Structures are given as C-alpha cells and as structure tokens.
Amino acid sequence: MTQRIEDYALIGDLQTAALVGKDGSIDWLCLPRFDSAACFAALLGDEENGHWRMAPAGAGACASRSYRGDSLILDTVWETRSGSVRVTDFMPQRDKAPDIVRIVEGLSGEVTMRSTLRLRFDYGNIVPWMRRTGGHRVAVAGPDAVWLRAEPADRVKSWGQQYTTYSSFTVAEGEKVAFILTWHPSHEPEPPFTDPYEGLEHSLQDWEDWAALCCYEGPYREAVLRSLITLKALTYAPTGGIVAAPTTSLPEEIGGVRNWDYRYCWLRDSTLTLGALVAAGYIAEAAAWRDWLLRAVAGDPADLQIMYGLSGERRLPETELPWLSGYEGSKPVRTGNAAVKQLQLDVYGEVIDSLHLARAWGLRPKPHAWNLQLSLLGFLESNWREPDEGLWEVRGPRRHFVHSKVMAWVAADRAVRALEEDPALHGDADRWRAMRDEVHREVCERGYDPERNTFTQYYGSRELDAATLLIPRVGFLPPDDPRVVGTVEAVQSELSHGGFIRRYSTDGLTVDGLPGDEGTFLACSFWLVDALRMTGRVKEARELFERLLTLRNDVGLLAEEYDPASGRQLGNFPQAFSHIGLVGSALALDGGETAG
Predict the structure, then answer these.
(1) Please, what is the average pLDDT of the chain?
(2) Nearest-angstrom CA–CA distance, 509 and 489
(3) Could you tell me which of 113, 486, 491, 502 has the fewest CB atoms within 10 Å of its CB?
C-alpha cells in the first residue's frame, strides 16, 4: 500500500537525503547527490522500483518514531507480541562515500527482524548484479556500486531471491545488529568500512552542536529548530546551495499532472532563506548561501535563470520517466525542470534584495557583489515593462504579473537605499529613483482594482494572487495603507480553502495553462500570518500560525501543499519554502521583524 506523503521522515548527510516510511521502508534515495538518479524509487512506483525495508517479520506500521534530540537521527519503535525493538536510521556526514546506517536494538523480549533490500538504479529502471565478496554483498550496474554490510555478520542470515536480498535475524533485550549501505563509483575500489556506532555518536554530536547555535528562544522553539534542521539537511554542503526539496514529482493533486522536480536551487527562495538563517543565528550557512548565489548568477544578466543545479549548473533538461507509475498514479514522473528557461523578472529583485540584506546584516562583503547588482539592475531597467511567467512558473502565456513588477520596484529601491547609506558605493541614485517611482506608479494604476480595493494577479485581471501579500513586507506600501488592508482581506476571503491559502484560483480557465487542481500552498499561508500581523490583526495571525503547526507530520515536517478536504499533505517533501515560512512567521510573532 502506498504511504501518505506525511508518513515519511527524512534522513540525510548534507549531500543527499532519504525518505523513511512508518513501515520501516526507505522508498526514496538518490546517490551520491540530491539530483542523482534514485536507487530506491518505490515512492514514485512500487516496491519493484527499489526500496529497503527493515522491520519485525510480519509487522506493519511502527508504534512510534521520533528524531533523537535536536538531530536528523531517526528512531522507530515497533511493539510486537514477542517484544519491542527500535531501528535507528541515519546518514553520517561523509568524508567521501555516502552511507546509510540502520541499527536494530532489542528493547524487550525477543523479536525476529526481516530486511528486504531491492536495489534498482536509474530511478528503478536497472537491476544490478549482486554478488558476495569478503562476507559482504556488492551490487554493481554501470557507474554505480553499492555495498551491504552487517555487523555482527554471523548473527544475520542473508539470501538472494528474485533480484532481492533478504536478511533475517533475532534480537533480544539489549542486543544490537547494524547494517551499513555504502555507495561508490563502480570503477573505484571498495570504500573504507564505517563503524556504525562511532558514526552514530559523531552524527548526534554534530547535529546537537549545530542546533545549539540557534539563538531563538521563543514559544515556538521546537518547531523553529526542527525547521532549521530540515533546511540544513536540504543544504548541499560542498557548495552551500539549498534544494527546494529532496524529491521529484510528488503531486500537487493526487492523480494529476502537476508533478515537478524540486531537487534544485531556486533564486526566489534567496531573500527568505537568508533572513531565516541570519535571524536564527546561522551566519555561516547564510554566508555560504550568499556565496552560492553570487557564483550561480555570475555572467550576462540577460542569462539569469530562476533556478540552478546544486553547484550552479544551468542545464536542467526536463524528461519524463514512463516506467514509473507515479505517486498514487500521478503521472508523468519528471526529472529536470523546463521552467529553468522561463523569464521571471521577480528574481532580479530577489537577488538584489538578498545581497542588500546580506550587507545590512554584516556578512563579510564580496568586492564584486555591488557591480553585479548594478549589472542586474541595468538589465531590469530595460526589461521590467515586459510580460513574464511570474514566480509561480505558469506554463500559460506571459503576462504582466503584479508581483514581478513589485519586485522590480524592490530592485530599484534597494539600489537607492544602498547608495544613500554608503557614499563609498558608485552609482546613479537619481536614475534608480526615477525607475522606482515609475514602477510604483504603474503598479498602483494598472495592478490595482479600485472597485474591489485589492491588487490583482496581473494587469487587467480580476484574479487574485497570494504573492500580493508580500507588498507590505517588501516595503512597497505601508501595512496601514487601505490598499494593503483591502488586498489582505480579499486574498483571505477569495483564496482561502479550509482556512489556508491557495496561490491563485485554479477554477475554470487557469492562468497556469495546466489542467486539474492543487492544494493550499503552505508558504502562502505563512505569508498571510505575516500580513495579518503587520496590519494589526495579531490575534488572528497567531491563531492561523498555530493551526499551520498542526499540519506538520509526527516528526515536524511539511510538504509544499495541504489539502483540507482529504487532510493530506501534497507536493514535494519536505519543502524548504514551507519551513522557511514557518521560521519567519515564528520569529515575527515573537516580537521581531519578519525574517527576510
């Protein structure tokens, strides 16, 4: 049976991540990087597409599970008639080769355990050749090799059957058996053996040392810290890039076609990510993200993309994988993302705003950062009047999206403010001031509906867009402006579903050019929290925020969307944008400014 999206927990090593279900099955894992081909892809197909289950023989879902302390080490407990057992899953931060460690410990009585390992490389498409060597097993196909080790090996009976490796063993109270799965390029020699217990000790210490840096001590600390740990887990440590999610093609509508690959780094997240990290005390992570941003966007401003690969790669061709049936039949399954070629003018404002805030927050300046901002602004000056696809990456016709124009205003405004605050910077403040005023005037004239007292999704439209909730947050208009108040009320009224917020209407002919529907968008719901707070409706803001907290799964994770009708999470999981929104809203409600 397919598990719900929220039935999964995340483990990772800051270069890739795995999803572990309540039944003890790892159903998603890409090796060696977030964006590599999956060797466990049951999440988007079935068990024959690869998975690794570790659970008591004949058992179903676990009795309970939790992360150990402030870490990404997952403890899963089963209660059986013969006794109880705990499986501890984690991925040690790697020196070179990635490992998954699964430690089974008897808690009471005596429990017979069963391991079922189906390795399927290339997203479940390739069955590797498995052989025994030196008391271990190694699976090889093309460029990939995976080793399976058990410790102590003499306690475990293993056999192969129908391209699957099974293991059986028994643990009594206090006894432990560890399994280690290690990937390496098949042309290289066997990787060094990882001691599972030393790895556990070091991993726990690493995570708790990192968590101790969090400077937020408010009433929502548990939720904030778990979200920050999740953001850290979605960071590709070698470059500092942060992926939007570790998964691809988890649907925005069950059975629908809105299934996208989120294993890349979006520029739209940059300001909010920097704000959340700095406000919580994680300066090193913020600086690494800022530096990734500078490397990724370097070059001709006309070539600026909305997203990049983990190391700043620009070519992310979109492909469909027809052999995968999709999560609960949601097809197609896609890798890559064709939206990479879209024109989204808002990203120019978001990059300039990010670099402006990085300077304001005291991150060590980069000598070329200001020249880059002027170059981006020069391109935007000549192109902000053009229609674009907007931040929601619509696959319909280009339009004059209000949010894109507002972010063009942000770009000019931050340049003016920078020149006013730092006389050492070179630039023409009057030129950017004139651009700022022109953009502001046009948005207020063409993007505002005076009859309904609300900003609209695009010029001439009657549709609404949750992104207009950001207007007071970026400073385009003050929170007490009647047009802001009216926009917040209109979005809350017309885009609300079950008390949470959609990005835009998907009824009838939709602006995004796609069939079907989607759930409420969790980041937009957190934006409403911020907008309510800024417009003086603090009690409502706190009530909505606390309702949003109840949507987290049992280990504190959020997907991209939520369907109030079915009570299920939807979309790629866990989603950085949702957790960034949680952190920002929590900090703002606790008396600070909204992060970002």
Answers:
(1) 94
(2) 24
(3) 486
Distance of alpha carbon 406 from alpha carbon 443, whole angstroms:
7
pLDDT digits (tens, 9 = 90+) for 536-595: 999 999 999 999 999 999 999 999 999 999 999 999 999 999 999 999 999 999 875 444
Can the peptide bond before residue 32 be classed as cis, meaning omega within 30 degrees of 0?
yes
Residues 6+ apart with CB under 8 A from 493: none
Domains, the chain, ranges and CATH? 5-189+206-210 (2.70.98.40), 213-590 (1.50.10.10)
Q: How far apart are CA 404 and CA 402, in angstroms?
A: 5
In terms of Cα–Cα distance, which of 446, 466, 362, 434 is closest to 400? 446
Average pLDDT of span 428-434: 96
Residue-wise pLDDT tens digits, 119-155? 999 999 999 999 988 888 999 999 999 999 999 999 9
CB count, 10 Å around CB of 176? 16
Contact 344, 390 (CB under 8 A): yes
The Cβ-side half-sphere exposure at 110, using a 13 Å CA radius, reads: 2
What is residue 595's predicted lDDT score, i.e. its pLDDT? 40
Q: Please give the Cα distance from 183 to 118 (Å, whole number).
A: 14
- CB 577, CB 269: distance < 8 Å: yes
The end-to-end CA distance of the chain, in Å, is: 41
Token digits of residue 5: 């999206």
Cite the DSSP H helix spans in 182-269.
196-211, 221-233
CA distance 77 to 2: 20
**In 3-state terms, what secondary structure has residue 195?**
coil
Q: Residue 86: beta bridge partners? A: 77, 105
Q: How far is 106 from 116, CA to CA, in rounded Å?
A: 19
- What is d(CA 560, CA 571) in angstroms, rounded to the nearest whole number? 5
Three-state SS annotation for 46-88:
CHHHCEEEEEECCCCCCCEEEECCCCCCEEEEEECCCEEEEEE
Residues 6+ apart with CB under 8 A from 559: 5, 6, 250, 522, 569, 570, 571, 572, 573, 574, 575, 578
